[in-house]
Amino acid sequence: LGLFTGIGLSEAKARETLRNGALSAQLRQAVLQARSALGPALDKATGTLLYNAAARLRAPKHLGFLVGYIARREILTDLQLSAALEYLRSHPMDPLDTVKFEQACGVGVCVTPEQIEEAVEAVIGEHRAELLAERYQFNMGLLMGEARSRLRWADGKSIKNEVDLQVLHLLGPKTEADLEKKPKAAKARHAQVEKQKAAVVENSEVGTEAQSLLEQLRGEALKFHKPGENYKTEGYVVTPNTMALLKQHLAITGGQVRTRFPPEPNGILHIGHAKAINFNFGYAKANGGVCFLRYDDTNPEKEEEKYFTAIREMVEWLGYQPYAVTHASDYFDQLYTWALELICRGQAYVCHQKVEEIKGHNPPPSPWRDRPVEESLMLFEDMRKGKFGEGEATLRMKLVMEDGKMDPVAYRVKFTPHHRTGDKWCIYPTYDYTHCLCDSIEHITHSLCTKEFQARRSSYFWLCNALDVYCPVQWEYGRLNLLYTVVSKRKIIRLVEMGAVRDWDDPRLFTLTALRRRGFPPEAINNFCARVGVTVAQATMEPHLLEACVREVLNEQAPRAMAVLEPLKVTITNFPASKVLEVLVPNFPADESQGFHKVPFQPTIYIEETDFREEVDKGYKRLAPGQPVGLRHAGYVIAVQNIIKDTSGSVIELEVTCTKSDMAEKPKAFIHWVSEPLVCEVRLYERLFLHKNPEDPSEVPGGFLSDLNPDSLRVVRNALVDTSVLSARPFDKFQFERLGYFSVDPDSKEGKMVFNRTVMLKEDPGKA
User: Fold this and answer.
1) What class of enzyme is it (predicted)?
2) Which domain holds residue 127?
3) Could you tell me if residue 213 is inside a domain?
4) Among 160, 479, 502, 569, the one annotated catalytic
5) Is 479 among the catalytic positions?
6) Which residues contact 289 (CB under 8 A, 6 or more apart)?
7) CA distance to 55, 384, 728, per residue, from 11 (Å)
8) Which residue in 74, 229, 264, 655 is the catalytic one?
9) Quick check: is 608 catalytic?
10) 11 is annotated as an active-site residue
């Protein structure tokens, strides 16, 4: 503590440093080395440089080298130190070129007062007109920044003093006008808004208010390493062979970005996977690279062909084409060979602890950890030949992971035929073993995964380095979750088994196949992922935010049609023609250049029951006795003449008269209608669960199955839809005027079309 406070750290900062074992050890070494050169009393400026060097240096082997420059007063500023650290990060291998190092961080460079004066004078000369016009309202930081760019190693305080002096000489002392507060620049803010709008147009993102996903993923936006510069990444382990392996890697890839999307083919992709797909494929696309679709097919007992097919369909549905479709099983032979190599290097062993024994955070260490290499090789061969039963033996790697998990399993016995390799194998590799090695084989540059895999990053680096193969970089990002739903495969299977939903593609779920069936366009899902953004923190979003993206896209894509869900028969007693008329209805009323469709108009039409009332309430504007309404697109206004009821008193028919719109008083409202319609089934969906977090015991003590919404599906079996939809195919989308957006369901058959309501036209205020 005394050592650290002696270099200028506050006691609180010193105690905080002591809690970090690695940092305090490095700082102690640095201080003792500096004291041996400069004596026991170190000034605060030197102490600050030593602290920053110890805290920011990624390769401890270079600490003595760096402290030597600080102790010799050759690195005097934080600017120099930052340049030195960047050079060391970019040149991890020994020996260091000291001449280039000193050039990179300004060692021996002396900036004279005359040079500072000349540089400031030149900068002020370039901005003289603006300075005279704006006087002290001018941004003086701009002058300092430009002067610093001309004299990189100049002292910042000296530059500021010279700027102040020369500005005072040019403008004279400040006046009262100079001291007045500068009004906020409304124009600048307007320009920024326009710039954002331009970015939206440029990237063809409908309705996005911020950067498109490609903009977020392009180049420097993420501060990811460049291909071949893996060693610049925090925590990346550099071995004596690293630079040679990276050189080979660059020769194979040509410096191209390579990512991969690695789903397990044991379930259907959900909305969280949409972010992963966009992130992996999008990052490659944004940076001129390629993305592999690699199935992690290492668990044969849970894998089915339908999942392989559905996963690829969903990737392509979202608009992405894999560079190559691969399988972890493609590399089983190589993975097995590497497992033997790992044993030979003393880095893996065969263990007989049961699964239950090694579960949890503090399992007992394996009594077989130090068994001889030859014995492990023989037993691993016995595992391969099927001489051990399931659970009787595993191959484990010798390492401790970030979360404290010790010696993760690399191989286990499973007597299950594999869908691609058949009965060739009865041992299968685990995720911890397979993932990084498949990335290495495919020369992935950026292994992007969700935050929960951060605890496996050290094992990722360790395994590649233990086998002396190319080591990619794992980067983590935050998961995307939605409220009011479950996405767990196990829980969706429970919902299907108990009949709460029909299957994985039930439109009340948030699997991608379900969203497609409901009518969500892929562009909307991609836009939603862009709005969530490339975040490290987990994002839990409300479904209505996704639905807003859906409306924006469908407003541009879905042609209009008219449909009546609860029909009320209306007879026009003075119909103006002896035959059926045809009415032209624009497909997109806001843009009639996109064409029209015809709908029949005849004496019998149908309107919504809710568009008629016998008694008019205040604020009610639709059809009622004495209150006419217009018929959308027809050019007629109708007025009630007679109300026909059944024996129970319910209204079953209206008799009305019609008047041409241009000859009638303008009505208070226009309503939709159908004539000679198709009889269709319409499915109206609501949220599947009643609470935001159905899996949270504090919110739903009875478990998620007790939280099902009994009104999540209402089927209207005899809805009436105008004939313009007759030729529609499954997944075609329409806006039913005044009702919402609807999509043709694959259950449709000749003579009975089925529509799913995708979203309502406007957000339900109760759901926001």
Assistant:
1) ligase
2) 113-172
3) no
4) 479
5) yes
6) 256, 257, 258, 259, 283, 445
7) 17, 59, 74
8) 264
9) no
10) no
